[in-house]
Structures are given as structure tokens and as C-alpha cells.
Write a structure and sequence with these properties.
The structure is a single chain. With about 600 residues, this protein is α+β, with helices and mostly antiparallel strands. The chain is built from 14 helices and 32 strands. It has a 6-stranded mixed β-sheet with strand order 2-3-1-4-5-6, with helices on both faces. It has a 6-stranded antiparallel barrel with strand order 7-8-14-11-10-15. Strands 20, 21, 22, 23, 24 and 25 form a 6-stranded antiparallel β-sheet that branches. The longest helix is centred in the last third of the chain and has 18 residues. The radius of gyration is 27 Å and the shape is globular. The N and C termini lie far apart (about 55 Å). It binds guanosine-5'-triphosphate. Guanosine-5'-triphosphate binds next to helix 1. One of its GO terms (molecular function) is GTP binding. This is Elongation factor 4.
Amino acid sequence: TPPSLLRNFCIIAHIDHGKSTLADRMLQHTGVVDARAMRAQYLDRMDIERERGITIKSQAVRLPFTKSTGDDAGTTYVLNLIDTPGHVDFTYEVSRSLEACEGAVLLVDAAQGIEAQTLANLYLAIDADLHVIPVLNKIDLPGAQPEKYAAEIAHILGGDPDDVLRVSAKTGEGVESLLNAIVDEVPAPVGDADAPPRALIFDSVYDTYRGVVTYVRVVDGKLTHRDRIKMMSTGAVHEMLEVGVISPEPVKAGEIGVGEVGYLITGVKEVRQSRVGDTVTSNVHGATEPLGGYRHPNPMVYSGLYPIDGDDYPTLRDALEKLQLNDAALSYEPESSGALGFGFRIGFLGLLHLEIVRERLEREFNLDLISTAPNVVYRVVMEDGSEVTVTNPSEYPTGKIATVHEPVTKATVLSPAEYIGAIMELCQSRRGQLQGMDYLSEDRVEIRYTLPMGEIMFDFFDALKSRTKGYASLDYEPTGEQEADLVKVDILLQGEVVDAFSAIVHRDSAYAYGVALAGRLKELIPRQQFEVPIQAAIGARVIARENIRALRKDVLAKCYGGDISRKRKLLEKQKEGKKRMKMVGRVEVPQEAFIAALSTG
Ligand code: GTP
């Protein structure tokens, strides 16, 4: 397809604003999928995605669309819809898929208005010079307020509120006008057809049958199925087994040229060898300059994962190896804990990433796991000038510390104006610094703060939601690090430090943290046959204590002899309850206790 007939675009939307539904409707309207084959959220392939209704991996689909308006009515164009992930953990992936497009549909729920994450992605699109087409969705809803939100969008983007398109992805109303607008407004791709090939990898997916499927956008030249290709960040050369386009199932093509979006199947076995953001070229007469913007994914949060049953350790190791085949951002190394035994310290992009990995390990590999409270990464500079990177609080150095550095983020909150006070109070209590505030409309504001990552990543969003009756939305991005006065708080059970409970907190809140955590643990750890003292300490100084009184726990006593099946039931019930317990010394500790640190803030 000549570039003049190509249009590459993506849809930027907040979760639940209807991106998948609109994509489905476009597939249907262009006849790519007939109504019978249509299943909801066609583009979301992974089961977990479908169940959670979120899009993690971007996908691309080719839509042949015949213009129905204007001078070029009757001309058939090829629209490539590139699906972008919507969650803050995957910002880098979003930026790469935007880079593969010339245009973006900004899709906003006409009953909700724009949300902070959408705004953040919109700014990424504007930075990438994409042409933005603003669209209000769900105009069929009785609660829709298209006038109000069109004015808000016009305020952000400039332009006339009347130019904001209105659609219903559910009924299909307005979808054809939108497709016409995409052809009219989104620029055709430009590139040098005679130059050595350069293609941007915007996604890379592991497929059990075919190995790694790499999604690319060709910028210059062409990739043909006879090429041997080279990954420019590593110089690794791979056999090309297949080139094709997605429509919406993979269709082989001899080659893909300037501006085209397609997939490559190569000899690559792990997605790590085919990284999002990397540039593909051919091995002979290849390009010398890669496309800009490649970045190695750096984990933002770390957590320990331990099998409840120590015998499962090899299974966990194999499972992680398998997961890494299709998750380039997952990193792990073995660690051992005095309390939990052998396990792994795992690096994640964010909490959602953590939850997904954990869920997949448990579901797909049938593992019962204990995860420790997640933490961010600290850089500790010692007085002798040496440096320690702390990914596990229990490994916080004990020697003479000169300075401690923590990661910081730039956070944006969008909210109805009536909650400004509550939001500022929350941000202040998390050591935030106000950067600025703008009214998007009479009653909605955008508030910007810098906040330590350790303060925002874990329970901040819940706290924000509860203080704003669910109306505020949040986005944040890492911006660097700052020096901070941090200390390690330890928890002792029966006088022994339990390494898995250690946390790094700001000195000013260490006391409150210790008291709250000791209190939570007292509630969460069941009574045992003996007394269990709980202490919180900074170094040798105890800052809080609680006591779990002893209990003679004899559930069978209730059965008054007799009924054997009833007895068995009770025993089984008790076993169920124990499934998530871990013996720490002589004390049985439930899973929730290990992440209790998260909910004491
Ligand atoms: P993620 O995949 O989680 O990012 O969500 P999404 O933005 O793709 O939203 P999705 O398409 O799953 O739609 C969210 C909900 O809104 C679903 O229940 C849809 O049926 C509904 N929905 C989408 N478009 C419309 C619309 O035009 N009108 C109405 N009434 N409901 C819609």
C-alpha cells in the first residue's frame, strides 16, 4: 500500500471510557470481522486482560476503509489501529505505540469527562506530534453531558467545542463520520523508501506455537521475508521466518514498506531479545542510526515472592523463567529470608504489573505464594563514599550512612474543585510539594505535585478516592530522585527480627508507622498456644509494642466426640485456613500480615 493511502492511529482513553468497544465497532464497520465472529473486546487477547477488562499488550489491526464523504469518496484507504495500554505502569509502552502513529483519537466518556491518565497520555501524543481528534463517547447515555465536556476538551486542546465529534461505540452512531475524519485529518506517513530499512518495535508478544511475534512500524525502506534482520540495540542478527499484517488474524505478506504496520516472526525465543522501542534493520546494507527513544525498562517496585510450601521453590523458579519469555520488564533474582526461606526478589514496573505476575504464577502454575510488602528502590551513599542500591529493606546498610536518596514522581490529580482542600491535605501529609494548579472548567481542576514514589505508589490512590468520593483521578511519572531522611523500621516477633516485615520510612512518620503496624499485626496474627510479643524498632530502639495473648485452640472440643464427618469437615476447614499461613519461628503468620504495611498509611 502506498503511504498516501495509509493512516496510522491509536485511541487514547481512560479505562472504561469505551476504547475496546469502539475498536470492535470499527472492525465491524470496515467488514474485517463479521457480526457472528465478533466477540467482545476482540483485540484483547490474554484471558487475564479479558477478565479484568484492561489492555496490557498493545496490538495492531489493519482496517480497509472506503471513504464515504469528500472528494475522495469511494477511495479505499488502509487504517492501522494501534491499541495502546491505558495504565500508568505501562507508560513507556504507550509512548512507543504513539511513536508508531501519525494520529490519535482522544476518546472521552461523555458522562465522565477527561481523566488524569488520559490527560497524561494526551500530552505524550502531543509531544510525539500526533494529530489529535477529540471524540466524546457514550452519547446514548441519559447522563451524558456532551456540551460540558466538549467545552472542557476545547479548553485543553484549543479549538471549537462544536468540532468535538460525538459517537456511541455501543450503537455505532457517529463511527463512520469518525473513520472519515481519520482519513481527512491524520497525515499520511512519510519515510524514505530507498533508504536502508528501519522499523520501530512497538510490541513484542510471546506465542507458545510461534515463538516471539514482534509488532513493527516501518519508518524507512522495507522489510521482506527474505531478510536477515538485526536488532540495533544489541546487534543480534535473526532469521526472518515470516512477515505479515494483522487483519485481524495474521496474514502473510512478502514485504512491508514505508509507513506500514505489521508483524515479524523470527528465530527469537524470548521477548527480551526483541524489545519494545528497539529498531529493526536488515543485516546486510542495514541502517547505521537507530530510531530515537529506546529505553531499557527499569523496575520501579520490588517485592519478595516465596512459596508457602518450600518444596515448590523449583516450580516457582521454572515459572518465573517461563513468564520472562513474554514479559521483558520482569526481572528477578533468588533471595533468602530468615522468616520465609528461599524465594525471589522481583522487580516490577508498578503495582498492577506485580498483581498480574502474581496472579499468573498462582493461576497458571498452581503455586501458593507469600508476597512481601512492595518497596521502591533507594540509593544509599556511605560515609566512605561507597554506594548501595537497596531493593530489599532488610538489606538496608548498617554502617555509617552519609545520605539516602529516594525516587520522586511528578503527579497530576484531576478532580471536582470542591475537593481541592482534601487533596492538598493528603499530598502534604505524603511529603508532596505543590507545583501548580489549573481550572479545566468552572468546577474541575488539575493539581500538580511532586511526591516521593514510595508515598504515592501503594495506597495513595485509595486514599485519594476515598477523600474525593471516587471523583479524582491520578497519574504520575518518575522524574528522578531526592535526598531524604529515611530510617529502617524492624518488626520483632518474640524478640526476633522478622526480615520480611522490615520497611524503609521517613523519620517523621516512623513512630506512627511502627505503632500502626504493630497494631495491625496484633489483629492479623491469630492467637497461638503461647504468648507472642510484637515490637517495632529502629535499630536497637523499640518504638512500639503489642502482645498477642495465648490461646488453647481446640476446635474439636466443640464436637462432643461423636460425629466423625463433622469432625473431618472442621479439620478441613482449619486446613483451608492454614493454606495461607507461614511458620515464622514458632509463630503462624497469615499472608495478609506480610502486606499489612501497605494499609497503615
Ligand atoms: P479498558 O479495555 O479497560 O481500557 O476499557 P475500555 O476503555 O476499552 O472500555 P470498554 O470498551 O470495555 O467499555 C467499558 C464499558 O462501557 C463497557 O461496559 C461498554 O459496554 C460500555 N460502553 C462503551 N461504549 C459505550 C457507549 O457508547 N455507550 C454506552 N452506553 N456504553 C458504552
